[in-house]
Amino acid sequence: MARQTRQVQLALYFIIFFSLFSRYNTLKEDPPSSYNNYFEVAAAAGYDPQAYPSYFSAIGDGKFKYLMRPTTDIRSLRRLGITSTSTILVDVDDFGATSDGADDTEAFEKAWKEACSSKAAVVLEVPKEKSYLLKPIRFSGPCNSNLTIQIHGTIEASDDMSDYKQDNRHWLIFDSVDNLLIEGGGNINGNGKIWWQNSCKINQDHPCKDAPTALTFYKSKNLIVRNLNIQDAQQIHVSFDTCTNVQASGLTVRAPEKSPNTDGIHITNTQNIQITKSVIGTGDDCISIVSGSQNVQAMGITCGPGHGISIGSLGSGNSKAYVSGVTVDGAKLSGTTNGVRIKTWQGGSGTASNIKFQNIEMDNVSNPIIIDQNYCDQDKPCKKQSSAVQVKNVVYKNIKGTSASEVATKFDCSESHPCQGIVLENVNLQEQGDRTAKAICNNVKLSEGETVFPKCT
């Protein structure tokens, strides 16, 4: 008996060690190549490469150490004849979820209460080959232990707009839940069609009003969200709001090209976030990064259709906005209405700084490179104002492909707060078809390497 117990313990230790080793290697991927030769040239344009600490220094300093916790696949242990006494499995079916088209919200709330209150490590499971219908639901923390959610099946949103009367901004929201892992390869379906049909951008007879974000993480830290399919959100698909230390990877985000305001991944007031190996195609920005966000890394992104990868908009309503330490390294954009974009409103204040776009391929993209400090997304013309969000220290390196618009590079910067420290190195953008692409550059202090086309100067 003692020998059998020893064998079970050894098998359990091996599985946990292997899981820990795999997650550690996921986080320690080599950082992007550094900028070397052209920093001296860039300094002349006002670029400061040491203005902010790098994203990867945050990992090196241990800010992501809580993300390196092991997880245990309970069902794999059971197949080996091992019962884990340290991890509890919570199955939504055991709390009354039926997956028969009826409302399963109450069952999910009960399962969450059980999982979040447990003092042992917990795996909350959404079984595969089943579809669960949910009304708006808030998964509130803090929880008593590390929690893993394995979504193998499908979670589908109610399309009855009256279900969202209490909160029309959120469908699924994780509020103040730290040390959370969500994975499983399953589907999250926002059933957004009814919301799109009632959008003022689709039907101007309807008033403009908010619609729910499909999946929101709010005031949470040490998050891993990976290997999920999110589709047809009511508005934004995934939002990280006031979070710290986030790793999102292997996400597939899809909605029709004409679906309004359906940003793929939205980042606001969030620090130390890494998005990798994800495919995003929606009716709005593939990734949008707005005020309060710092140390944002996006690598291995496939984007299209949509509005590209955007920082902003910033400074609306004469507000202050701050974004810094953003790196987009390794992306392919196809058929998008913008490429890599920074957009700010007149009248705002603050800074958007230390931003790097590198190793990017454009395929038939309109406005491949654009800084727009005269952004105006409203029916009435925006009045001219002198204050502006300062855009500075922005690098574009190793960007190539084709432009669907005649203007491939556009810097439309503020007269009173010109863009500073803008660097272009090894950029080659050709217009799709016979015409020659051109650059328009207003109120910008920049440095261009020899291998840049089209050139501002």
Tags for this entry?
13% helix, eleven-stranded parallel sheet, 457 residues, 17-stranded parallel sheet, elongated, mainly beta
How would you describe the overall organization of this protein?
The N terminus is likely disordered. The protein has a 17-stranded parallel sheet that branches. It has an 11-stranded parallel sheet with strand order 4-7-10-12-14-16-18-20-22-24-26. It has 457 residues and is mainly beta. Helices cover 13% and strands 43% of the residues. It starts with a helix and ends with a strand. 47% of the residues are buried. Strand 1, helix 5 and strand 2 form a beta-alpha-beta unit. It has 6 helices and 28 strands.
Structure summary:
The protein has six helices and 28 strands.
